[in-house]
Amino acid sequence: MDSLDQAQLVLTACGTLLAALLSYALYCRFFHPLAGIPGPLRAQFGIGGWLTVRGAKRDFGWELKALHDKHGPCVRIGRNMVSVTDPRAVDDLYKFGGPVKDKAPFYQFFKVTKPSLLATLPHSQHQLARRSVSPAFAMNVLLDLEEYVDTCFDEICEYFDRQIQKDGGKATVNMGDMLQFLAMDAVGEIAFGRSFGLCKAGYDTEQYLPMIDAYTASSCLSGTQPWARPVLHRWITRKLGSSGAAALGQKASQAVALRLEEMRKAAETGDDSGLRRDMLNRLVAAKNADGSPFTIEQVKVQANSILGAGSDTTSITFRALLAYIIKDERVYRKVMSELDEAIENGTVSFPISQAAGSKLTYFQACLKETLRLHPAVPWVLPRVVPAGGAVIGGRYFAGGVHIGMSPFVYQRTDVYGPDAEVFRPERWIEASDEERKAMEKNLLTFGSGNRVCIGKHVALLEITKLAPSLLHRYRLRFTPRGPSSPHKLPGRSVDGKWDDAEPWHCESQWFAHQRDFWMDIEERAA
Ligand code: HEM
């Protein structure tokens, strides 16, 4: 073949490729079932990558909100993916027995070594798996949890007191990390049979935090481009570190082995009084749908996934709640006078029980408002439209389309009134029973329907007990930014605004993580 023929061959190949790409782009823009739905151009033309860029830049929530503000309740965010904010879609997408059932493949990389609950995509398989795991989240497990959470609180207080004493009455602490240690230690107590000891140590002894961050960030990013998973995963774990994974795997193995041994001894002696009635206990005793017992590997997968799902989420919410309360002196004073009054009239005593904390009406309204405005998971919760298509939010979608709602964007729409962007706890108190029911239904922070967060009551229990306890014991203030402050990142709010008055640097990917959250802390005058 002479050089002219070769050049012609290359030209023809390039031309064919270009024509194929052009036809594909035109198909996506004009003939795809989602054609005509507005959105970023690269989603319209099927090039994709909008979600991947958001995942990599961690600016998802506010960028998606800007798209909805511009285009309305239905936005195409991928070749085959749509985000909706129509209130009717809550039932259409998430309701028990609703038309849409399976999760989108986006979730597949949230598996541990085997699919966890979160990463089980088909509805039928998920139902069976959830039935096996749900005894671990039963009410009596929760009640026993109170005692372990109290121990974790004592340990974090000992750490704070040490720092306060060391620094002459007032200490500057990394509250962001400390609250995650608190959530991790509590999850450790219930899912691994013992605390990780992080509150006591006051630092991340095994580099767990970067490892958990790498796991979530990589799962989310890979979900947007499954074919690029190996590269994305390697990039993120190298960037953020994954050394804690080995330590965690070892902890899980040790915890399960120890518990099995304790259960064997109890069965042998007929005395199970020393056995803890925690989640690990229930997981070890769990059975699969065919009646076979959970394998050790299954128990470890569930325990690890509980850690992955339960520690970031709880600490993000805890940080946000403290910040909303402390930021506004009016709100702070109302929370404190309700608490002080409850202590005075004896309805609250220490350690604060879940039951007593739940009766602090104004505090609970602050918690609700925090869950609404700063949902730990701002990402869309995507599902697959079943074969044959379905009407979602008043619009027909073809089978196979991926579609979901973002708690962050939806909870800032006018379903919560014209002041939806404002932190106003009173809205939960002023509402009639019917209005409150609608507000609860529209709160997607824990998901909804058959996939609703199974650990919701664990998280609410921890925060209900611990946040008032912390506020009662210490006077907390944001550490002012300045050349000598420990901050490393510029201030950024949960809605993406750069502002050095913000107490943290907020990110928005699968999680709405707050980085660099420092607080000045001193004992509160009685
Ligand atoms: C404030 C704290 C929390 C928030 C905001 C939260 C939020 C969520 C969300 C949004 C989902 C996914 C729903 C979906 O994909 O449709 C979820 C699922 C899940 N969460 Fe939570 N979560 C929290 C705390 C916890 C805790 C403490 C645990 C464990 C102790 C936990 C365990 C799980 C599990 C296992 C799933 C998967 C459930 C399933 O698919 O059946 N979460 N959570």
UniProtKB/TrEMBL annotation:
Molecular function per GO: heme binding; iron ion binding; monooxygenase activity; oxidoreductase activity, acting on paired donors, with incorporation or reduction of molecular oxygen
Cofactor(s) this protein requires: heme
SUPFAM superfamilies named among the record's database cross-references: Cytochrome P450 (SSF48264)
Residues that, per the record, bind heme: C453
Domain of life: Eukaryota
Keywords (A to Z) from UniProt: Heme, Iron, Metal-binding, Monooxygenase, Oxidoreductase
Pfam families per the UniProt record, alphabetical: p450
Presence of keyword DNA-binding: no
PANTHER family: CYTOCHROME P450, P450, PUTATIVE (EUROFUNG)-RELATED
Protein name: BY PROTMAP: gi|342320831|gb|EGU12769.1| Cytochrome P450 oxidoreductase [Rhodotorula glutinis ATCC 204091]
Organism of derivation: Rhodotorula toruloides (Yeast)
Source lineage: Eukaryota, Fungi, Dikarya, Basidiomycota, Pucciniomycotina
